[in-house]
């Protein structure tokens, strides 16, 4: 088990994260917050690239900085921008990395074959990466993070730049991997974690606001999410009074999904909150990068 206890991180006087308490067991965890909330900072501490200003991070009870190399052997990391050589094929690139990691050549070859299959790149494994789509590159990124068969897989905004089909493919790969390891991915896109994460972690005001299953997080705003149809002329006033979550035109009217704590008015339907609603509710005062 990976535990974060009382961890704070300051950049000079600026507090990026405060008193973080988290525990991770095998499964997929989605770290969901707007840009700038501190996701990368948290992940970089978990991969030992940054040191907490205070507090401790332990793996099975042992401080990860004391474990040092032994801990890094358990880690797979996909940073926001991972460096690769455009003229390399995935196989060349992974062979190179496996040599850096000190893997034996034959074992590395076998592992790379397995990984290419896992991420669905068998046919492209000998093609130059400069021809690859964003999704294919991300899959190479996962493969490189999996080279050492990590017990902890950390992915920073891994779905950026993927098209819808690639997202589905990506989710399936992660669900498979999470059966026997901790998978932690950060994102500011709700739909990327909604269907795969066992638990969602939300950071607000530098602290952990939620770490819970999606249904429990959604329950926190039960009874304040509504839908109704209004005339377009009323839209401006309506938005002044109620926080609009989503809107679409339907049959000459505006169908609006919104938050209200005023009780149900005529023509309003209370609806079941989704994770997107919670996200918008929590970060409604912040500039949300979506
Ligand atoms: N090296 C640094 N020095 C000073 N401030 C920093 C440094 N790195 C990050 N910050 C600040 O700390 C806060 C959290 O940054 P962080 O990159 O962790 O956020 P994030 O949630 O990962 O956002 P993004 O997805 O945009 O990277 C931001 O306000 C950022 O400006």
TrEMBL record:
Coiled coil: none annotated. GO terms for molecular function: ATP binding. Keywords: ATP-binding, Nucleotide-binding, Transport. Residues 2-230 form the ABC transporter domain. SUPFAM superfamilies: P-loop containing nucleoside triphosphate hydrolases. The keyword Ribosomal protein does not apply. Belongs to the ABC transporter superfamily. This is ABC transporter ATP-binding protein.
